[in-house]
Amino acid sequence: MTPIITAATVKTTTGISRNVEDRKLDPFIYAAQLTLKKVTGKTGYDAIVAAFPAFTGAATLQTLYDDYIVNFLSWKVIELAGTRMFTEPDRNGTFTRSDNTYQSVDGKTLAMGKADSRDMAGIYMQELIDYLTDNTDLFTWYDAGYCSDNITKPNTGGVITRLDRFQRPYGEPWYNQYDPDGY
Question: Which end of the chain is more exposed for a tag (fewer CB within 10 A), N or C?
């Protein structure tokens, strides 16, 4: 897969420290581009990759890339790599490093940074979709109905209604001694 954004661009666009190691961002660039492929559709994604980096004769793709794709991809990379930038997973847990000392990281701290990045990526994804939808005459490969159905929707803050595998309807206890499976 051809990378259409670099770790340096991600750092500049999002304002994170330039001292963040590229190795912590690079694996997530490809994952962010797969999300872009869902937003634009395969044909649109292939057109963007084919025109990158020169965009010769493709001024509309250049505008799309500069004004929308860079912001979306940068924040998507930060969303995906947020935990890895802040911490290093080890066999004994997740730690932050300060000089030669290691400190365990709590889940609340990790969740706050992840939520901020997710919100920013969602904002820029919506801007990208709106721009493509408003300019379908320029981007004839964009099919708003097909592409929007394939998009991973950002978290809307709704209520999660999953049931635990031990929950039973009508207030039954999770363990039933008469059930041959023991549940």
Answer: N
Check if the beta carbon of residue 94 is closer than 8 Å to that of residue 88. yes
Cα 1 from Cα 3, distance rounded (Å): 6
Rg (CA), the chain: 21
Structure tokens at 94: 């997740």
List, for residues 24-40, the tens digit of each pLDDT value.
899 889 889 988 988 88
- Identify which has the larger pLDDT, 150 or 7: 7
Q: Is omega for the bond preceding 53 within 30 degrees of 0, making it cis?
A: yes
Q: Within 13 A of 34's CA, how many CA atoms are on the CB side?
A: 8
104 close to 111: Cβ distance less than 8 angstroms: no
> What count of residues does the chain have?
183
What's residue 103's pLDDT?
77
Task: Walk across the sheet containing 101-104 and list its strands.
Answer: 88-90, 93-98, 101-104
